[in-house]
Each structure stands twice: as structure tokens, then as C-alpha cells.
Amino acid sequence: MSPLLQGLMTILIGVGGCVGYFYASNLILDKVIFPASGPKAGRNINRANAIRPWLFLLPAVLALGLYLVYPVIGSFYRSLFNRDGTEFIWFGNYITMFGDAEFRTSLVNNFLWVLVVPAAATFFGLLIAQLTDRLSWGNIAKSLIFMPMAISFVGASLIWRMVYANNPDIGVINALRVFFGADPVDLLQVAFWNNFFLMVILIWIQTGFAMVILSAALRGIPEETVEAAIIDGANPFQIFFKIKVPQIMGTIVVVWTTITILVLKVFDIVYTMTLGNFGTQILPSYMMSYMFRDDGRATAVAFVIMIIVLPVMVWNIIQARKEMR
Amino acid sequence: MSGVTLNNVIKRYGNVQVVHGIDLQIDDGEFCVFVGPSGCGKSTLLRMVAGLEETTEGQINIGPRDVTHMDPAQRGVAMVFQTYALYPHMTVEQNMGFGLKMNGHPSREIQEKVREASSILKLDDYLDRKPKALSGGQRQRVAIGRAIVRGPEVFLFDEPLSNLDAELRVEMRVEIARLHNEIGATMIYVTHDQVEAMTLADKIVVLRSGRIEQVGAPMDLYRDPDNKFVAGFIGSPAMNFLDGQVAGGAVTVPGLDQTVQMNLTLPANETRVSLGLRPEHLEIIPGETHQVELTEALGGVSYAYLVASTGERLIVEERGDQRSKIGDTVGLQFDPARAMLFDTESEARIR
């Protein structure tokens, strides 16, 4: 069978299955289990309506349970075993992990990433959204800035490898250094600062995301409040910081936390650029490097990442729900 | 305190001219209302006085100062918007004090002035609330308070009551009138509602497509309109217009089935004219000329909607105990001295 036909079949079975499930399950509920007739018709209708939401939720609950809840619990359980899964070693993996200097480096680096990347991406996104708001070529500028969003992290890393390349004939930065009479350096080996060079890549990608969301939020601010502030004598900076930013604070927080969660998941950039060498290791890439070797440490790292992400995620969801109200 | 003078003020957007050379003198302490149908340029004109729209040509003076190219904040104006335009993230107190804060006044003084304004507007209990916890009327009071606190020379109102329901609108209208008496500052007020214009204004400016049609005190415009547009716009229900023709020193009006003798210099015979009659100047008498199509009884008065044999429609005000019913066949009488005559071509009043 041709792949096209297979795809079509899959879609048909999938969509048909969904429709069939909802139709059949409701039919059974209304006709067989709690029929809306006979002496208990009223009570049966109420009961059926109480159960109906769960019918709709069931597929999602099952899928999330299977692919989200079970792996979380399963990972935690496995993180308490040795590599082969034969010996229960309590928190042995966690203890060796915290004893590893590389883990501690990656924890510190990860906090740096979480502090810098969301802040910078949100800041630049807001700045660009505001600056391009009234320009005739603003939309072109925004499209250009949004474009990196379409590039995979690995692709973006490859581009920036070129930018950072040691050879001044390839790397822009070293070309500039040579032009101004300095010697080329391998930027990815400059201790401590190389972390920031890697962060630049993610900021470059995520600024577009922040810009698009914040630009829409800025457009949503009632023009009259800005005009009222102009008449009240506020200068452009005061209008921006005292009138506009507070009105879109909810959106800023959502963008910020969304990027924060992303930062805690991205391993591709570090993996592609430095493989975690030269003191640039972060938790996700540290996990990757232990996934196929050594002890059962990777699941422990995964669990630590999850614990760090969780509060940010909860906050994000609360803020997003507030926004929607 | 000072008046506002507009001198040949023109506004163009690209090649489109929307305000065509407006000359206007608003005296110190006067309540001036710009009124006209939507799109007549009244809001644009107000925003030009505020400085939110640039003035393409001409000059705007506030008192002796030429403010044509000044920043809005330096003009000494405060504006109240239709949508209130309150800062949603600030409390009522912060909203009202924002203007003074931006101009670097000490916080003691700001607090004093805010308290003063809030007591005038009965907002004392709401100072710590955010705008979203206020009703529409309260929000508009805060917006007015924000204007008062700045102590401007000129208050600008851009359709401030349009977002309120009918009952609140009347209440706020009275409140704005009271405020004007209390403060005595110059106020410019934009509305499309001629009732607001009539009740609030010392001086009404009737605008149509970027031109002034007539300026005057409310009752002057009502009694003595310069043209058909003003006559039709001022007064509610609107003036009735009937087609007629000048013939032998009188006006033949088929819609009334009579020839009206008018005490004024008539144009040449055969000139097509419009006869204007206000609903309250018409009286229903027994007769065969008009059919009652609909009646609206408001209590003290009723409005009878009549159709003439020509198909023209008229509204007649009725008072007293005898009122007409739907389907009645009636006649009309009026005092010819109350009737107004307009040239059909130019719409100008024939006096």
C-alpha cells in the first residue's frame, strides 16, 4: 500500500474512531444505562448528564495517563535502581549525581540560562514589538525577526557554529577581531562566557516568539489610555513603562514563563555546539550524556529537571488562565 | 481661565480635507457644545484643540497663547473620553493623580487635590478601587475627576455619556452641568445627541462635513435656525419639512392641502421651497387631509405620525385629553408666523 493511502487510512480511522467513540458511548449512556424513560426518567437524565463530561474526558485522561503520568512515576521508580534495573539502591543515583562536579556545574549553568534567556528574549521581544509598532516596514522587520522560530535548534546551532568559527574566513566575530587587529579566539572555549555565547542562540530563536505575542498584546491596549497619558503629560518612556507595560504585564509573565520552561528542556544547542565541554554543561544535555552509559543516573537527572520545571509551569498555567478571564 | 479661539483651522489627512477652515470664538467660562451627525468632524476638531491631532493649517489660541503646535500636556487642557480611558492597573486615586505626578508635583499636594476632586464627585469611598470594580457612571466620574485634578484652563469632553445607559446619562448630564457652575472653567463638549447639546450648552456649534453650519445659544438655534440642516437637527422630534412652491405671493403646500400666506419677502414665483413646522406648532383639527399612521403616548405629550395625501410624513405633538388614534382621518392647523421657509436648492432659510 502506498504511504499516501496509509496516511489517509490513518486519518480516517483516527477521526472516524473519535466520532464513533463519542457517538456510541453517549448512545449507550442514554439508551442502555440510564434511559430517559420509565418511572425514573428524571433521575436517569440527571445521572447521565453527571457522567457525560467524563465520557468526553476519558480519551484525554487515558492518553495523558499513559504518556505523562505513568512515565513520571515510572522514571522516579527506575531512578532508584542501578543501571540494569536489578538492584534497588534507594537514592544512590541521586547521591552519586550530586557528588559529580559536572552535575553541579550544569545545575549552576542551568540557573544562569533560566535567568538570562527568558529575560533577554522577553526584553528584546517587547522592545522590537514597541519599536516596530508604527513603522511602515514594521511587518517586514517582524517577519525577519520571527524567522529563526522556524529553524530547528540543531539547524540554528549549525548557523551559529559558523558565526563563532575559529577561522576568520568563516566566523563573523573572528573576522571582526582580525579586522581590528586582534587574534582570532575559539569563542566556545572562553570559560564562563561561552555559556552566554550559547544562550545567544536560544535568545535569537525565542525573541521572535516573544515579539509576536507581545506585539499583539500591545495592539490590544486601548488607544485612549495612551492619549489620556499624553494629555496628562507623560513622556514616551513614561507612557511605555507606566501605562503600556503594566497593562500587558499578564502577557509578559506568560511569555516569560513559557520561555523558562523551554529553556529547561533544550539540550540540542549545548549538545551540538560543545557536547557539554568547556564548562557549558546544562541539565538536559547532562541527562543525554548519561542516557546510554554508566549508572542509572539519567532518570535521576530527568526527575531533578521535572522538579525544577514544575513550579514555573504551575505559575505559567495560573497566569495564562488569569489572562483568559 | 481663558477662552479658546480657532482661526481658519484646517485638517487634512493626506489629500482628504476633513475640517474646512473653522473660525470660532469660545469665551472664558463658556460651555460650548460641538454637535453634528457622525463623521462631521466634531471629534477631530476637539482632538485638534487637545493636541492629539495635528492642525494642518490655521491657528488655535487658548487665552492669549498660541497653542497650535504645542504638546498636549502644555496646552492646559484636560480631556474626558467616551471610553473613560482610565488606566486599568491603577487605583482611582492613582488615576486621578497621574497627571500631577507626571508634572512633578509633590505627593502631599497631589493627595490634597485628589481628595478635593473626589469629594466634589462623591468618589471618596472608591479611592482604593481599580476601575474594573466600578460601574460605568462611577468610571466616568473618575475620568472627570482626573480632569478636575489637573486644574486645566479648558475641559474637553468627547462624547462622555455615550457609553452610559439612558438613566445614568441624564444623571451625569446634570452632574456635568453642576460641575460647570461650580468650577466655571471653559468647557468644550462633543456630542451627537442634540438633547445633551440643548440642555448643557451656553453656545452650540452645529457642524456638518467639516464646516460650521451655525453657532448660537440653544434657544436661538431652535427658534431661528439659519438653514434646513440646523432646523432639522435641533429639536426633538425633528422639524417637519413639506415641499412647496411659491405662487402669487403665497406658498402652495400640497402636503397640507393649503396655501400659506407668509409674512416675509418671498422669492420669485415657481421657486421650490420647503416649509418647516415644528411638531409642537401643529394642531390636529377635524378634517380630511391627513391619516394617523401611528401614535406614541409618552404621558404628558403624545406624538401622532401623520401621512399626507402626497405621501409626506409629519409628526404632531398633542397635549390635553383629546388625542388621536391610529387610523383617524384628521386636518391640521398652525400659526403661519411659526412656520419657516427654506430654499429647496440651497437649504438656506428664507427670511
Summed up, what is this model?
The complex is a heterodimer of chains A (325) and B (351). With 325 residues, chain A is mainly α. Chain A has helices spanning 3-33, 41-78, 92-99, 101-131, 138-146, 153-164, 172-179, 193-219, 223-231, 236-247, 249-263, 268-273, 283-291, 297-324.
Task: Supply database-style keywords.
heterodimer, A: about 325 residues, mainly alpha, MetI-like fold, 2 domains, 14 helices, about 75% helix, B: about 350 residues, alpha+beta, Rossmann fold, OB fold (Dihydrolipoamide Acetyltransferase, E2P), 6-stranded mixed β-sheet, 6-stranded antiparallel β-sheet, 8 helices
Provide a descriptive summary of the structure in words.
The complex is a heterodimer of chains A (325) and B (351). Chain A is an all-alpha fold. Chain A is built from 14 helices and no strands. Chain A is globular, with a radius of gyration of 26 Å. Chain A starts with a helix and ends with a helix. The mean pLDDT of chain A is 88. The model of chain B has no long low-confidence stretch (mean pLDDT 90). Helices cover 24% and strands 35% of the residues of chain B. Chain B has 351 residues and is an alpha+beta fold. The longest helix of chain B is centred in the middle third of the chain and has 18 residues, at 166-183. Chain B has 2 domains: 4-233, P-loop containing nucleotide triphosphate hydrolases (Rossmann fold), CATH 3.40.50; 240-350, Nucleic acid-binding proteins (OB fold (Dihydrolipoamide Acetyltransferase, E2P)). The A-B interface holds A 222, 224-225, 227-235, 238, 242-243, 246-247, 249 and B 50-52, 71-74, 77-79, 81-90, 98-99, 102-103, 146, 150.
